[in-house]
Structure formats: C-alpha cells, structure tokens
Amino acid sequence: MTNYLVQANGIKKYFGKVHAVDGVDLNIKAGEIYGLVGSDGAGKTTTMRLLVGALLPDQGDVTICGYDLRKQTELARSTIGYLSQRFSMYEDLTVLENIRFFAEIRGLSSTEWLPRSMEILEFVGLDKFKDRRAGQLSGGMKQKLGLASALVTRPRLLLLDEPTTGVDPVTRQDFWQLVIKLVSTPHVDSPPVFGEHGRMSEEQGGVSVIISTPYMDEASRCHRVGFMREGKIIAEDTPSNLRARFNNRVLELRGSPINKLRHVAHQDEDVEDVAAFGDKLHVRVRAGKTDLIMKRLPEEIKSAGGTVTDLRVIPPALEDVFIALSESNHD
Amino acid sequence: MFNSRIFSIIRKEFLQIFRDPRTLAMIIIMPIMQLFLLGYAATTDVKNISMTVWDQSKTIQSRNLLDAFRAADYFVIEHSVGSLEEYQALIESGDTRVVLVIPPDYDRRLIEGNAQVLMVLDGSDATVGATALSTARLVGQAYSTKIMNEQTSLAGRAAPSAPVEVRTQVWYNPDLNSAYFNIPGVIGMILSFITSILTATTIVRERERGTIEQLIVTPIRSWELIAGKLLPYVILGFIETFEILLIGHWWFGVPIRGSGGLIILTSGLFLMSSLGIGLLASTLANTQQEAMMTVMMFNLPMIFLSGFFFPIAAMPKFLQIVSYAIPLRYYLTIIRSLLIKGVGLAAIQSEVIALIIFGVVIMGAASLRFRKRLD
Questions:
Q1: In Å, how far are A4, A112, B26 from A78, measured between CA atoms?
Q2: A55 to chain B: which residues are within 8 Å by CB?
Q3: How confident is the model over B149-173, as pLDDT tens digits?
Q4: pLDDT tens digits along B39-95
Q5: Across the interface, which of B20, B214, B219 has its CB nearest the CB of A74?
Q6: Domains along chain B?
Q7: Which residues contact A125 (CB under 8 A, 6 or more apart)?
Q8: Which member of B16, B20, B214 has the closest CB to residue A88?
Q9: Which residues of B touch A149 (CB under 8 A)?
C-alpha cells in the first residue's frame, strides 16, 4: 500500500493522430496541491478528464484512493470532487437546487444534504445567493458554485480544471484562499456512500488538490508543479526548485529605446530569449555565460546608439521558467 | 426498489421542464393542437361538394333529377350556368368541383328510355373526385330504377324487384366518422413524436451545456441515469394519452370501448420504443438541433408507413413489408381496436408481442450505445 492519493502510470490518450496525452505519470500525496501548467493544447484538460474517468485512457492506468479507476470506477469517483473548465451546473436551477441535486446523486441522504449544503455555501460565500438561478450568477460566483458542488460530499481529492480562467483578480484571490483553507483543515473522513469501503484513514492527511492553470502566480502557490507540453510532463518539481534551475541566468535590463535594446539583446548568440515586462526586459542567457553577457551587452547597446540604465541578475520568476520550458527542445 | 438517486434526477428533470416555457408548451399545447387539426381538418369524409348545373331542358323532369342529387346530401348546387365557357371558368377557379349538364331533349329521351346527362368532374383532388364519381353513379342508378318502376306501374304491371340487393351493415362506426379513426392515431403520433424528441433533447442538452461532465464524475450508474432521464417522459406520455383520450371522447365523441388497463399497458409498451428511439438519437447527436433532426429522420417515415394517413393495404407490397418494422403500426392497430371495437387482449396479442419485442430491442440497443463518458 502506498501513501499516494493519486497514481497515474503512463496514461495515454490519442484523438486520431493527435497525441493529447502521451504518457503521463503522476504521484500525488495526501494534502498536496499539485499544479498542472502548460500552454493551451498541452493536454491539461484531457489529463484531468482521464483522472476523473470522463475519458478512458488508451493506455496506462489510474488509481485514486486505492481504487482502480478502470475497474472500480464508481468507487473511485465517490472520492473525487471535480470542477470542469466549462461551467457545468444547471443554469435554470437555483444555487441550492444545484447543490442539492449533486449532493443527492453523490449519495447524501435527505437529512444530510441541507445542513451540508448550507455549510459549504457559507464556506464559499454563496449562502446569501442560495435562491438565485445559477445562470444569473457572475463568472466568479459560478466558479464558487462549481467548487461548492464539488466539495459538498467532502471528497478526498479535488480536481480543478482552470478554475480561475476569466475570473477577476479579487475573486481569484478569494478562490485560492478557499483552496488553501480546504487543504489545511484536516479532512473529515465521512464519505457518505462508500464510507465503509474507504481505504484511506484520517491520519494520512487532508484533501489533495490537482489544479490546472495558465497563470504562473497560481502555479507558484502549488506545492508541486508539473509542466505539460505536447501531452507530456516535461518538468516536475516544487516551484522554488524549478526556479532554481534558472538561477543566475535571468537578467533584468532597463534603458532606452526599449525596442532597440530588445533587438540588440536578441542578436547576441548567448542570449536564449528576451521577454518584455512593461518598461523592462528579462534576458535569459545560456548557462555559464552570465558574466560574459553582463559585460558585452551594454557595449553592444551603446554602439547601436541605445542607453542602458540598469542591468542586473534577478531571481527567475516561474514565468521565465515556463517560457524557457515551452521553447526548449526536450530531446 | 426505491432508488433515491433516480428520484433526484426525476425531480431535477421536472424542475427544468416546469421552468422551460417552450418545453411546457410543447407538452401541453401540441397534443391539443394536433388533436383539433386532425379531428377537423384532416377529415376524409367528403360532403357538401360544390356543384354547378347547366340545365338546358328546364322541365319538370330535369328539376326532379336535380332534386335527386340534392337529396343525396353529398352535393350542394351552388351555381347555375348557361354555357360551356361559364362552367369551365368555374372549374378552373376552383369554385366548383362537379358540373351536371342536362341536354335540351332530356324530357323527350327520358320517355324513349335512353336519356343521357353529362357529369364533369374536377379530378385534381382525387379524394373528392372519387367520392363525387361514385355518389353520382349511385344517384343516377337509383333514380333510373325509380323511373323504371314508375313507368312499369303506369303501364299497369307490378314493379319487378331487383335480382340482387346488397344490404349493408356498418359495425362500430355506423356513420363512418373519420374522427373515430384519426383521434386514436393522434395518441400514437403524440406518443412517438413528443416523447422521443423530448428525451433526445434533454439528454443532448446535458452534453451541449457541459453539465454532462459533472454528471459523469458522480458515482451514479449508467442505468440509473437513463432511468431517471426517461421516467419523467413516461409520466408525461401517459398524461398526454389521457389528455387526448378525454378530449377525443368528450369533444369528438370517440368511444372508449376497451379496457382502461389494456390501454395503459399497451401505451406503456409503445412508449418503450419511442423513448428508446429518443435515447438512441441522443447517442448519435451532439446538439439539440441535431437530436431533433435525427428523431425526425426516424419518425417521419414511420408516421407515413404506419397506416396513420394511408391504409397499409393500399401500399405497394414492398412498403407493406417495410411497415412490419414500424412499432407505430402495431400500436395504431391496438389502440384503434381497443377504443372503437372494444376488443380484449386475445384479439391484439400478436401486436402486443411485436411491441414488446420492438421495445426491448430498441431500448436495449440504445442503452448499450449510451456511455457515461465523454468519448
């Protein structure tokens, strides 16, 4: 018996010739927040769908809370809360009716659902809107409703597929506070339907969260991050370890004119990438060439007619890592 | 066995139905609309055919002939003309269907025993034309028999009786009222159309709006999902059946002679096939529109080949064979026999067995195709 809540071994999913997911391995511990990041089309959503059994993998297998997703599908699902990328509550039902429906078909009894629903609506801050039709909620409130419905049966594993895409920064912040609160509170282990078969005991930790996101600030809140590209996880580590891979390789450059600076930096053969961040540039250099560039780049800019006001080594942001990983050839 | 998850889905379905005015209208108003349309407009009873007369004889004898036509109840003499051009114009404009031309020497030749009149018919509407033709022949025959009898009795001899006389007896529907035939058919049509369209769209709507993704991830089993989705429409199907029966009975006077239990049982069996078709269509379609089209594709040929509009016996052999593959055909036979003839189970058992087979096969195939997954 392992102490992993989720285990995926070499899962693959092909849509015709497109290898949407091409051999993904995952091991998620209890109480862990795992971030799945990557560009659009990298295979994040398909991976999520494979993990909840909405799609059947062409190869590989998934174990959730000790249940084989392929053979013990419904048992495995009884431990999952899932928030899909697309809003998937009934717009013509009220907030409470939606929660009730999903609570009941996931096995909450007629005496349990109401206190539990109210508790969860309060938790996400929707209790005042319980009688509003879901279709009339704002984008952020819709996502909170989705979260509430995923949480109402107290799942051990929460899968959130791009939950904050298209949501304003304040609501995003709220949303993350909820997720963090959820993981830090010890899990009350009372799976309603299949409780007696539950294989995980309480001591093994709280709720695990797998979240996919295109936002790097969100990725940096995760305990571990997996970078997806072309259906594979090409890098997986804690955010700080990932950043450490590019320590001493990202320079911040200020000066004018900014377009000239950018052009000149691009021309240098030891510069891998130049990214604009407002009035400054992030210059990523080849490993071991930092000192060389620090000397050479200001001279090149001067001879091109530009001025440098500041050039220094900065700690890499996750965004730099993401861009680097998205570009590199991983052969 | 009470299953609370199925019950939750049923309750949710009803909530959604009651909040969607279009679905609600389709459920309540469509049966009534079809009932009145088919009860009145689709009547094949041809009466009051507009008739034009060109009476060139203008004698007592010619007026007696016209009275004979009037008495037949099928013709209304609306126009009287004096030339070929006049009645031609009336036929062309559709103002008259039938023209009776009585020649100037009609009274003289009647006495000689070889009088002829001309009947011109607008054959563009075959139903009206055929009725007018056969009625005109009958009126003519009856009238000449009458005259023959008068002449022989004038001559002092006893009137000879006809060598063969066909005496008719019409059972079940003595007035041959076509509503008796059409309204039970409406029940079959409503049950196959509305329920299959509604089930197909309600399932596809979950896919279209993305709610299916949440449903899939719940531990609900496929059969529970199917049952919860279909049962509301079984209930609605029965409500509509009763709605049509009541209006058909109280408004159109259609008799309900068979047992209520048999009507419910056989309607339930037929519902299985139409819900199965809806479920099957939902597995083939991705949008509600596609679902609607798919259901129509199944249903339209079925309606035409079921014997609802056109008698199966009049179809070419090939289509008659095809019609055996249509559940509605059996249900129409059953419901018409139950309502109008008041038969028992023995008279309809082969149709009932056919409905059971179709219901199980269609529903089974649809359930097997139905996957609680996205791919």
A1: 17, 16, 37
A2: 373-375
A3: 887 877 777 666 667 777 778 888 8
A4: 777 666 677 888 999 999 899 888 988 998 888 778 889 999 999 999 999 999 988
A5: B219
A6: 4-43+177-369 (no CATH), 49-154 (3.40.1710.10)
A7: A144, A174
A8: B214
A9: 214
